[in-house]
Amino acid sequence: MKEIGGSCQIPVGIFADKNSARAVIASVDGKKILREEISAENLDGKIFARKMLESGGKEILRI
User: Fold this and answer.
1) Rounded distance, CA 32 to CA 6, Å?
2) Residue 24 belongs to domain spanning
3) CA distances from 26 to 6, 16, 40, 50, 57 (A)
4) How far apart are CA 22 and CA 37, in angstroms?
5) What's the number of domains the chain is made of?
6) 7 domain-assigned
7) 62 in helix, strand or coil?
8) Is the dihedral angle over the CA atoms 24, 28, 31, 32 positive or is it negative?
9) 36 near 20, Cβ under 8 Å?
């Protein structure tokens, strides 16, 4: 969340368990949604966040 700039005003989220992490970035109106999943063994939070931003998250969040 910190790497993306998330807050309670921005629709981003992540769920992780021992096997994987799943994250979402959505537009405020919910029309655009980006979802990504990564295995727990490859999880680096900062790299995962940057990947999401580069995969369309920046456009959704307009940052």
Assistant:
1) 16
2) 12-61
3) 11, 18, 23, 15, 8
4) 4
5) 1
6) no
7) coil
8) negative
9) no
pLDDT of residue 40: 86
Residue-level pLDDT at 11: 87
Stretches where the chain sits below pLDDT 50 are none
The answer to whether 17 and 59 have CB atoms below 8 angstroms apart is no
Lookup: tokens for 19: 């096997």
Query: What is the reported pLDDT for 1?
Result: 63
Comparing C-alpha atoms, which of 2, 1, 43 is closest to residue 24? Answer: 1
Q: In this predicted structure, what is the pLDDT of residue 15?
A: 93
User: Looking at residue 6, what is its pLDDT?
Assistant: 66
- Joined together, the tokens standing for residue 57 give 């998250």
Instruction: Tell me if 6 is assigned to some domain.
Output: no
pTM score, whole prediction: 0.80
Cα 10–21–8 angle (5° rounding)? Answer: 15
